[in-house]
Here is the input.
Amino acid sequence: MELRQLRYFVAVAEELHFGRAAERLHIAAPSLSQQIKALEASVGAALFIRDRRHVELTSAGRLLLTDAREIIALAASAQRRLEGTSGPLRLGYVSWVPDELVASVRSDLRLDEWVMPSHIQIARDLDGGLDAAIAWAPVADGRLHLQLLWAESLAAVVPARVKDETIAAGRLRVLLDADLTSWDAWNQFGREFAEATGARVLEIDGGGITGRGFHDHCRKLNAPVLQSPKRHQVSLPPGLRTRSVRDPTPLWCWSLVTRAEDDRPHGARASRDRRDADARARQGAYLGLRKQSTWVPPQDPHRETITALTDA
Here is the structure.
């Protein structure tokens, strides 16, 4: 069992999609599939159930996922200690943490246990509860430094009978939830996307942006529905599949959020770590964007960057 294979396994387990995991890892999907098969042979158990429609973890896969994350974190911590660095860096996140960022941090990384929505993580960063956060920022803020980590292309969930390989943005339904505590960021993004593209907004209450509730809405609507960037732990049920969105492709821009001015000792460390991660982060963020018709909100702090890249 190799550490690299564990990183690949965690990526597939979090994405539940080999194509997206391969894009996140910057490797070819066939190579990723081969590495997962090699890992399964090494541990002597199937880790995923996969067919043409969906990917899901087996019971063995669920058991390994917890251990794999701990092993990866321990390896990164050991590497940092060997480099002679120390001191905690508190990092909050919403949905995912890129392995490249973990590897680049030259201090004792402490992933916050509270997985909270973007607007809450940014507020915690501002009040000093976190040193950094991975979140979606709706606008630029002079109090913050926002480093683009990844421009995530959002997909549509469609009935299995739909044969189109891509779905025009104007055909989509966009679910918005009345629970602003959990879904304020998504609601802002979704409403602006619908206004810009002609997609249809559907107001819901009591959950249903992710998980089985989301799948229930998709089945009832029997129409293409925009999928949120939240990592979906429940695999797609029979009768549903994902498709890429076009004309335009909506991009959810994940930022590494740090305070612009921080006079505490670990604030300087966070800035150094942020600069060290910059080159790797940009490579991951811009993968596959050129020559695409894309959309980001008008006030998105990374809009000019995305426009320049897609027009290149």
About this structure: DSSP finds ten helices and 14 strands in the chain. The first helix runs from residue 3 to 15.
